[in-house]
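Q: I have 331 residues here and want to know how they pack in 3D. Can you give me a structure?
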Amino acid sequence: MKCSIVIRAYNEGKHIRKLLLGIAQQSLQPHEVILVDSGSTDDTVSIAREFGVRIVPIEKRLFTFGRALNIGCAAATGDILVFVSAHVYPRHANWLASLVEPFADPKVVLSYGKQRGNELNHYSEHQIFAKWFPSQSVSNQRSYFCNNANCAVRRSQWELRPYDEALTGLEDMDWAKRAQAEGGVLAYVAEAEIVHVHEENWPQVRNRYRREAMAMRRIDKEAHFSLSDFIKLLPANVINDLSHAMTEGRLLREFRSICAFRYNQLYGTYQGFSGPSEVTDELKRRFYFPVSRSEKAEVSGAGEEIDYEKLLTEGQPVRFQQATTPRRPLH
């Protein structure tokens, strides 16, 4: 099966070179790499062109997460559509091969991989990644949780149900929910690991979680996050993060960051939610409850890490091959 990598970007010149270098190191090389750019004014596009990436523009005023994905998918020619954010990079050379391996089962419609942060992420986000993306793979996942920062779908399934272009976020989970309801299997692949870099100030953190909560209300009619949830989960998450930080000898250094991040995460969620009843218990535990020490434990065996410091100093980038006959958009 041929796989196309689709990257959505806006002013990601600081990060995209590292992502493209990581893709070039993969044991399984993609059929093509496509950048859906929403009007970058930095060197994002020029860097992508150095690698032979095909550029597909979208007007900034027309951008939504779902629309950008649909445009990229329509331009792609592969059987498997792989999505990565422009500010991630694969940790190992077998990331892509691991991510697409579940599609050997014809029932699998979507796979997604592990995410971790680096030194630029807020401390509490490392705890969130450990909660959302555990170290054990699941071949047939019960919930519709997934994340398009490191995800793949079967093209034939996308053609049946394009992404919702009106959602303010979580278009990936909306798609997965619909696909799963129609009998599709979702797979989580812990070995397909990427590093997801977030450099956000506190208003940006709050707005991200508010936007995603607004989307969750549309996706799940049972979704609700009340004031009592906020009051209960804020101290629970803060205390849990402080406990992890103390164990790691980072309590004093991370104290203010932990309190600020968890407040903005959960207050933004509270702002974005309204509804008569509670969100699905399994998703609520995954999204908002503190991470346990067993969930945070890492499992090795994904392969030797890519040496990005060496790659960034070596010089000329590798150029990706591209499909010669792009598909026509479906709409």
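Q: Anything worth noting?
A: Residues 275-279 have pLDDT under 50 and may be disordered. The domain at 3-198+306-314 is CATH 3.90.550.10 (Spore Coat Polysaccharide Biosynthesis Protein SpsA; Chain A).
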